Amino acid sequence: MDEDNHRIDESEIGEIIEIDEDAEMKYASDDEDQQSTSNADVPAEIIDDSLMSLQAHEQDCFTVALASNRWLATGGEDDVAFLFDQNVSESEPVLKVEHKDSVTQVLFNHSETLLATGDLSGKIMISDVATKKVRAEIDECNDLEWMRWHQTADILFAGDKDGILWMWLIGNKGIAQSKVWE
User: Fold this and answer.
1) Would you list the domain boundaries of the chain?
2) How confident is the model at residue 3 (pLDDT cuts 50, 70, 90)?
3) Where is the stretch described as Disordered (predicted)?
């Protein structure tokens, strides 16, 4: 059957919408379209309704670790890791650990006495949370991908982008032993 000759049965009509022929059809010009989207570049105002915020990092914070409801460690794009002690201050860090690149890994060991911080370049710093001093500096990895502490010993494992596995036994005076699997 030809579409031009098709008749609509009243049972096929769901709703009739009246069109006002006198109403002007309004279309935005190209200039108006550009003007309305130009505000998309302006960031919306962000309202901070948090109970507490840490303002130590100058750039984005990438990673956070908590220990014993006391210790908080953060790492960020500004090549720095911070350690906060909730018993001392809720907002001021007690330790600042400098790195060469963005800090993407912060981990406390099983006994929560050591903090390992690692950056994208592969630099790893081991800090004693009680003395707030760096115990060991490791710069053997290339493009650090991951880090994990052993569940019962002060042994840190790490892997880099080339699939190499590193292991360090952390002693009281630094690295006591290390091993590499390629």
Assistant:
1) 61-145
2) low
3) 1-39
Strand order in the sheet with 144-149: 144-149, 155-160, 165-171, 174-181
Instruction: Kindly give the residue spans of alpha helices, DSSP state H, lying in 9-112.
Output: 30-38
Three-state SS at 16 = coil
Give the Cα separation of 6 and 120 in Å (integer).
70
Q: What's residue 136's pLDDT?
A: 96
Q: Is 39 helix (H, G, I), strand (E, B) or coil?
A: helix
Cβ-based neighbours of 89, under 8 Å, separated by 6 or more: none
| Environment class of 53 (CB within 10 Å of its CB; exposed 0-12, middle 13-18, buried 19+) | exposed
**61-145: which CATH number, 3.90.1150.10, 1.10.10.60, 3.40.50.2000, 2.40.10.480?**
2.40.10.480
pTM over 0.85: no
Q: Let me know the angle formed at the C-alpha of 135 by 95 and 155, rounded to the nearest 5 degrees.
A: 115
